[in-house]
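Reading a protein record of the kind used here takes only a little practice. The record below shows the convention in full.

——
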Amino acid sequence: MNLRSELDRIIKNGRITVLGIGISNRPLIDWLLLRGAAVTARDRKSYEQLMPLSEELTKKGVKLILGDEYLENIDEDMIFRAPGIRPDLPQIRKAIENGAVLTSEMELFFELTPATVLAITGSDGKTTTTTLTYKILEEELKKNGKGKVFVGGNIGAPLLPHVDEMTGDDFAVVELSSFQLSTMRRSPQRAIMTNITPNHLDWHTDMDEYIEAKCNICRHLPISHITVNSDNDITAEIGRNSDIHVTFFSSSKTDFANITHGKVNASAIFIKDGYITFTDGKNEEKILKNSDIRLPGKHNVENYMAAISITRGLVSTDSIYEIATSFGGVAHRLEFVRELDGVKYYNSSIDSSPTRTAAALSALSEKPIIICGGYDKKIPFEPLADALCKRAKKVIITGATAEKIKSAILACPLFDESGLEIIEQSDFDSAVKAAHDAAKDGDTVLLSPACASFDAFPNFEVRGNRFKDIVNAF
């Protein structure tokens, strides 16, 4: 199917429906209206809940179908699905059987953009890696004065509204979630898989479906190169079985054959003599000294490895060095908030999985008082319990997953009640106050929930900002 020609045909002679009036689909609706499309917007929220947006859309001529029955009787010719809506819902399946074309804002952007697309996915680290890739490219283009870099997708604003201003000299750096990837039939030119660990199992039917969705990043044209984590069993296997050129990165291995898992059409990025080093199996090139990286933690060295790989041949080592020595991090990712009475406070609200929290703990030199808990994504907490028992001083648990986290800690073979104190709190604000009250001069308080925010907050940004507000008010 040629999505561009199908869209042109339907704009002229048919109707389009947009499922979910969220961040990505609002500018999509305006984009479609500007091209003369007949648009229906469907959302579970009521007209009143969506005010003033619902009133604005009505004035623009958009037909609204709202409330619990918003997916019933889909009879439009093309369906744009918001990432959070499963594509296999009975109502959507029936519409497809009746001839409707299912797509998404992101897939349409991939089809239309003339820019070179570099895309990043993974369970952890994708936002920081996306930001580093964007900043390194931006630094390079400043020097040569040709082209622009756009960044979006699962990070920041949607990119479709900018597609008409993009040229073949430009780059689009895109973060992609498994929700976005699940129905994609087009891939970027270059891609990264930072890692794959259990995540979003409240949405995906199982781990296999989650992995399958992630693999869509490198299944289709025009992909020519993918970077994968050699130290993660799942991504290493994906890389080894890929037909395209693969760069494996590893922060623990130094032997080329060991890093690349025997794949012939491969290269590697690894640590040697304190440098991030690239090799094609024959020649080695030192790219960046580890100690030049301002961001703390081994996981951020790995993020740089991935960003260096996807931009290889496009940027100079000078541009990489400029960003490494100046960039202090992304908000809500081990973000330093303040120091009060000798206690340091860090906001890492983005940490919505056990592996993210484990990485945040490993980046700190001291054992922190950590706040954990939130929305239940149906993922196991044994890895979290292991990390907490090894690297935390006290853990404040709250939210919908508090009891599950507590049970995992108590069942952990490493648990020692004299070494790790568990403090339970009924709500988020009380948890932050409890961490403050428990902290003494020289301690660190870390918000790293290991869970999504949806039991108490609309998203991790709101949760992180609430943490900062409370801490700054102490």
Notes: The mean pLDDT is 94. The longest helix spans residues 126-144.
